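Lab notebook, bench 4. Still working through the backlog of constructs that have no structural model yet. Next entry is a single chain of 388 residues. Request: give me the structure tokens for it.
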Amino acid sequence: MTQTRKIIHVDMDAFYASVEQRDRPELRGKPVIVGGSPNSRGVVCAASYEARVFGVRSAMPCAQAYRLCRHAVFVKPEMAKYKAASEKINEVFAATTDLVEPLSLDEAYLDVTENHLGNPSATLVAEAIRREILALTGLTASAGVAPNKFLAKVASDLDKPDGLVVIPPERVAEILVDLPVRRVPGVGRVTEQSLARFGIKTCSDLRAHSREQLCRWFGRAGEAYFQLARGIDPRPVRASRERKSVSVEQTFAADRNDVAEARETVGVLAGLLSERLVRAETRGRTVTLKVKYADFQQVTRSRTLAWPVRERAALEHAALELLADTEVGRRPFRLLGLGVSQLGEERQLVFEFVEAMRRGEGLVCPPEVPVRVNVGAGFTGLPPPAGG
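Model written out:
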């Protein structure tokens, strides 16, 4: 019999903004927006929960964020601080298990079926992780505990900030009843619209269709949707998860200080990057512009788009918006670079899912019985005691 896995998804709470509030006590309790200035064409990198109350969200244009929350404090991002905090968080993960799959500086999956703490309760392990992160960094983390990655991610989003939610195998169906399909891995804005054309807006709607029908409509992705809508996700936590990106750059023989030339170079780089993405048969969601100034100071500006792109026009448009949020034109520069990451997320998800299904990994389909969310209860992989 296949052992039920114990997966934890850890997600730091408003990470960049929380680091700023930690280091600057005068910002605590105030709406904080990390990103460009209010009158720039930059985007929001992170927003504190005080700012989110007003509708401010990551990847939103800063000008729009200002209109929503005019009394917010705008702070320029300092990646060195965030990376330092992330390193301490990763130390906690490494002390817990060897199976850690990082997703970003502030988010990761951990397989704690076997763990260095020797604790059979994934819930207690998650509580220990959150305590240790708070002690080392002064930052709070939310965590989800479940038998697979999909459900663990869903769980960690249910009680933020500073929450812990457990979804044992026998308590899945109720969570998925009204879960929007946008929360299903691999479903972005475009796929969400495609599903809506068939009247599919929730996991319950997906479950109303047969595997054969979903596969006719969506190809191999239909198999993934069919299984995920039932809480089945065989993908393993991969400690060697590769972070892929494609980039190009131009180093100038002499320093430049002309905005028009910079904009022209960005257009050329967008064309080259588009060609590389076409050859690689992939697309990306996060566009990053790199600038190295004459004094060798290097900065990056990034924007995550609503859907993956590889067309030159889309890349150039995003890059020019990022360029406007730099000091090019006010400071001489010597290098411009353009890159794309988060490549082919949907296709990769489907590939990993189908391959895992083929290998028969972690197939722990929970019974279809009335269930409920279990917040903070022990999850040992064994049936809960009477009364839950």
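Notes after review: The chain has a mean pLDDT of 84. Residues 259-279 form the longest helix (21 residues). Flag for follow-up if needed.
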